[in-house]
């Protein structure tokens, strides 16, 4: 199987296509992949609605499975870009989707007005921490098990 393929078809990348219900289904499927599980920390339906209405979404779709990958960011009116979610369906891991979706985000959002990208990750999510480091994020602070990571925006006339 080549990278970018699932057993049921090719991944298609999209921006802002998913509905709140599709996002909620995806987040429920991925919940146990978060440390601690997402469903134990947030009301998934409400979080999905917030993502659908307020975030810029970079999505991976499978023809048979639907939404299988999601990077959601809040573009805080030209200040920091906050990455609120990075998730890939368990059945689609290992194809580089999270990295491709983050890169799509940087390609679109990395404008001179964006000073940096920020995200928070639990230190127990070792694979996620490694991914973010590969994508240029560095630890900025730590509170308990939560690491705040940052990556500078590189677009335009940065000083």
What key attributes describe this structure?
alpha+beta; 159 residues; disordered N terminus
Describe the structure.
With 159 residues, the protein is of the alpha+beta class. It is built from four helices and eight strands; from the N terminus they run E-E-H-H-E-E-E-H-E-H-E-E. The chain has helices spanning 20-30, 44-54, 97-109, 126-134; strands spanning 5-6, 9-15, 56-62, 66-75, 81-88, 116-122, 138-143, 146-152. Strands 1-2-3-4-5-6-8-7 form an eight-stranded mixed sheet. A hairpin with a 2-residue loop joins strand 7 (138-143) and strand 8 (146-152). Helix 1 packs across helix 2. The longest helix has 13 residues, at 97-109. The model is unreliable at 1-9 (pLDDT under 50).
Topology:
Blueprint (H helix, E strand, L loop, with lengths): L4 E2 L2 E7 L4 H11 L13 H11 L1 E7 L3 E10 L5 E8 L8 H13 L6 E7 L3 H9 L3 E6 L2 E7 L7
Parallel strand pairs: 5-6
Antiparallel strand pairs: 1-2, 2-3, 3-4, 4-5, 6-8, 7-8
Helix pairs in contact: 1-2
């Amino acid at each position: 199987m080549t990278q970018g393929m699932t057993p049921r078809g090719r991944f298609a990348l999209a921006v802002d296509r998913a509905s709140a219900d599709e996002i909620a289904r995806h987040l429920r499927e991925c919940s146990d992949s978060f440390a601690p599980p997402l469903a134990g920390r947030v009301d998934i339906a409400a979080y999905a609605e917030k993502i659908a209405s307020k975030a810029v979404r970079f999505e991976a779709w499978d023809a048979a499975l639907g939404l299988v990958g999601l990077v959601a960011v809040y573009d805080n009116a030209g200040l920091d870009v906050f990455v609120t979610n990075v998730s890939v369906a368990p059945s689609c891991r290992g194809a580089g989707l999270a990295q491709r979706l983050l890169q799509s985000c940087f390609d679109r959002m990395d404008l001179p007005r964006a000073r940096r990208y920020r995200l928070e990750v639990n230190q127990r999510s070792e694979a996620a921490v490694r991914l973010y480091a590969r994508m240029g994020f560095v630890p900025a602070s730590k509170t308990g098990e939560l690491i705040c990571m940052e990556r500078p925006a590189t677009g335009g006339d940065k000083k």
